């Protein structure tokens, strides 16, 4: 009997329920973003070169990831599935492409470069993971939200100084709320009938398998 192809292996895993099809995971995220973001660690390697509409790929990453318990929190972790979101397909037949609003990481010395999230275009927003950076969301016209991702400019300020300087500009999430050396932060936005919600998912940095520590809503405040 010839060996299974990677696609055949994934089909068996999906059919058995051991892994979730990426298309199904994406649908669940769109229907109820808080649930999947709290349940599933996301290994985020998405990083766009400019603000705008682009595409990303979601694929299964691990069936042995961990999330906090609903009652005991980080005192008792539970096994869960994780996903990888990236700019370029892993070319292993397990990924699913989808449209996104990509938010570019700009240097803090030039000031905020805002991107508008409204009722147009894709229903998901992605940006690079926070590595000393600060993400800011503030209200626009109607249900629109203005967002920006600022990287502390070397020689000008640290991540803590950047977050402190920008903390009253809008709803901010930066180094005042995470330890750069031990934590990795994903920021994900999802549009529903009520407008945009934006979430920060805090992971143990470089953990294998991935492990969620907490989830925080950035927007609405």
Q: What tags apply to this protein structure?
A:
single chain; 221 residues; alpha+beta; eight-stranded mixed beta sheet; five-stranded mixed beta sheet; 4 helices; 44% strand; globular
Provide structural commentary.
There is one protein chain. This protein is of the alpha+beta class. It has one domain (6-219). It is built from 4 helices and 13 strands. The strands form 2 sheets. The protein has an 8-stranded mixed sheet with strand order 1-3-2-4-7-11-12-13. Strands 5, 6, 8, 9 and 10 form a 5-stranded mixed sheet that branches. The longest helix is centred in the first third of the chain and has 11 residues, at 6-16. It starts with 5 loop residues before the first helix and ends with a strand.
Please provide a brief summary of the model.
The protein is of the alpha+beta class and 221 residues long. It has helices at 6-16, 22-31, 34-39, 159-166; strands at residues 42-44, 52-69, 73-86, 95-103, 105-107, 115-117, 124-127, 134-139, 145-151, 171-173, 183-192, 195-204, 212-219.
